[in-house]
Amino acid sequence: MESVKLLGSETVRLDRSLGRVLAEDIHSNRDQPPYDVSAMDGFAIRSADVAKVPAVLEVVEDIKAGGMPSWTVQAGQCARIMTGAPVPQGADAVIRVEDTHAVSDLRVRIDCSVKAGNDIRPRGESMRDGEVVLRRGTEITPGVIGMLAMVKRANVLVYRQPRVAILSTGDELEGLNEPFDAGKIPDSNSHALMAQVQALGIEPVLLGIARDDPDELRRYLQQGLQFDVLLVSGGTSVGVHDYVRPTLEALGVQMMFWRVAMKPGHPVAFGIAADACVFGLPGNPVSSMVCFEQFVLPALRGMMGNPRPYRRTIEATLGREVGHRPGRTEFIRVTLDRQECGYVAVSTGAQGSGMPSSMASADGLLVVPSGSDGVAANSKVTVQLLDGTAYQEEAGGEW
Ligand SMILES: Nc1nc2c(c(=O)[nH]1)N[C@H]1C(S)=C(S)[C@@H](COP(=O)(O)OP(=O)(O)OC[C@H]3O[C@@H](n4cnc5c(N)ncnc54)[C@H](O)[C@@H]3O)O[C@H]1N2
Ligand code: MOO
Fold it and tell me: No. of H helices and E strands in the chain?
């Protein structure tokens, strides 16, 4: 995280800004609401008139949202008022229509007393003219979009997104659109990684498959280093054809780390060049995706200015024991079920790093500390979420 740079900023349209991070403070350009308004459909009254109830009041006018009152409410009078309409002069409270009873078109009986200020939203309650309503560094969520629209920002200054390239390596790989060859391994990593990047709102570029040939690999890596971030999968380990790291070094990349005490993903590598950073992700499909979650995702979010780069973790109860040999932090793919006691985490089954099904059905990654020698059922565990939704508790329906 220390090695990745915050990118510059750019102006984008509000309707293209979801998921980005504000690169400017946002100021309100008016008082909201612009005057004291009613919070309810009902009657604008003088609270002194309803100190004793029931009280019958004369209705002097109807005030709609978008209209303006034309009368001052005098003693014994009231105005019919809609939610969001300006409170008329003289009135100091609103009473909900449910707490009243129409006596005639022009007379209403009030059945309960209210204090001054009741159901009135004072001018500037939501925001005051000139005040900072959103700070630089705020992630743009749907709620933030609503506030930006409220201050009429059709365009906003946000941090730039990294340009991301994805490269797969290996003679054994067969591209998605290449002819079927039963002896080959389909290149799934390019596509799974692409989707992980897309889930952050970034559109990456697939460079394709580089064969295990130093010259070809060098050309591809050179191309990849033109991007802000290069993700290379395969060829990071210690096999004689694992050329990725030495070739990167020959191209001037400074390797910051290689091999992490984690499972899966042990051979992961990371390096920086003048204007790019490179992740060498292990070839096994689950390893590359788990390493993306641990390293690439926080880096990409950090580069986009997000002050909350990491995935959320939750505490869960382990449904079925898991074994572990001390030495590496292990990320076990689990499903999460919401039960009365909270979330229950259960392993998705065979956990080999070449078993993509373990990842496809996972809600999260159970984090087993490196020193653990196994976790018993019913233990409290930490689960890193892969997304933010859950099955419905005791679902009556299908969802
Ligand atoms: N002597 C050692 N051998 C290995 C070690 C080790 O520490 N010492 N580590 C193992 C671990 S752990 C992993 S993970 C793998 C990772 O190795 P590489 O990053 O060099 O990956 P490859 O050898 O190229 O491929 C591994 C595996 O994954 C398949 N693969 C590769 N790319 C793709 C792709 N784009 N889509 C789908 N599948 C892919 C590849 O066919 C291999 O089966 O090294 C261990 N070995
Ligand atoms: O770390 Mo490897 O990623 O176990 O397959």
Answer: 7, 26
